[in-house]
From TrEMBL:
Its cofactor is K(+). Catalyzes phosphorolysis of the pyrimidine nucleosides uridine, thymidine and 2'-deoxyuridine with the formation of the corresponding pyrimidine base and ribose-1-phosphate. The keyword Glycosyltransferase applies. It comes from Streptococcus saliviloxodontae. Coiled coil: none annotated. Homodimer. This is Pyrimidine-nucleoside phosphorylase. It is an enzyme of class 2 (transferase). It catalyses: 2'-deoxyuridine + phosphate = 2-deoxy-alpha-D-ribose 1-phosphate + uracil; uridine + phosphate = alpha-D-ribose 1-phosphate + uracil; thymidine + phosphate = 2-deoxy-alpha-D-ribose 1-phosphate + thymine. Keywords: Glycosyltransferase, Transferase. GO terms for molecular function: pyrimidine-nucleoside phosphorylase activity.
Amino acid sequence: MRAVDLIQKKRDGLELSTEEIQWLISGYTDGSVPDYQMSALAMAIYFKGMSVRETRDLTMSMVASGQQIDLSAIDGIKTDKHSTGGVGDKVTLILAPLVASFGVPVAKMSGRGLGHTGGTIDKLESIKGYQIERSQEEFIKQVQDIGVSVIGQSNNLVKADKLLYALRDVTATVDIIPLIASSVMSKKIAAGADSILLDVTVGDGAFMKTLEEAETLSQTMVDLGKEVGRQTVAVITDMSQPVGRAIGNRLEVLEALEIMQGKGRVDTTNFICELAQIMLRLAGVDKSLDDVEDHLVNGKALEKFEAMVLAQGGDLKDLYRPSSSPYITPVYAQTDGYITELPALEFGLFAMKLGAGRAVKTDPLDYESGIVFDKKVGDAVKTGDLIAQIYSNEKISQNRLTEFQKNVKIGGVQIKPKEIIKIIS
């Protein structure tokens, strides 16, 4: 085979065979297919797409390009969860121990954030001593012992995806559904769980901007999971405003603790309970929302979270300390009414500029900085009410404060947002 012939075939809108896709991915992983040819193929896929069969073959070829985790030593139905990303998304911090508190093992590998705020691993690393790098044996043993572990993705997992994603990022070929679906699902399949919950975010702060795009991506990933025998459900969730109250690594950990102590916002608490109920059902455990919420607020989920932090070297005293940001700047309502918009993208970028996220992979994080909202979309406000507090390592200028305030939209009509938009199974 020659790469140029396969590029031409896809360029002309023809399907690549299973063997051709396997040859391309194997060659790209071992270096015999160079970057410039793979980038040409990615662009051909961008314009011509891939069939369901091609997407499946691409996914499984990528799975075969690296290490695959065997979780069979762990009793029960192992569960995993993946989010396509957003702003203030601390859901995994709460959801993993909550599901584990029902005796369902959660063995999860998570990633770092790029572009807005930190990923799950960045949030956990804001806890002094927390170890994200664990051997496969340590990972499995911890899940056997306490039922939950959240670690960083292995460098040996799905090698082809690491190479291909970096290439797509610099060749404007990221936002094409077959390549997104194969990237996500190759990692989830290789990570070894029996059941997978996919949180596909849609809206201003998400990668998928329209419901139609989110539905197509969700169905593609669900079908891929089922093809290889994994129980898979996708939940399309709103990302038009930040998740919960906090944006920023330490601040999101503190909000997660509040939620697990029964002190979180009702809407965020209910949202996480609904996701947990779906994950539990995937594992064959049928619980009411009241049962799930009871575990969330009565300390059982928090007990699992603390056990995970301790097992991975974290300091429980440090876990509960407040942010050490030297400046906390309040933001007040400029008029009466209801919060109608808190654009997730704008506030994600604002938090990134504070140091809570990375513009490029080498950027250092300020774990302490970020934003905590006192009001969210749908809440009533009066002039002078506290809307949010900005945590920063330097004084916020009036210009930046004005920039923040202009993105807080207040109107006369109350809007009631819905976190879960649609479930695809």
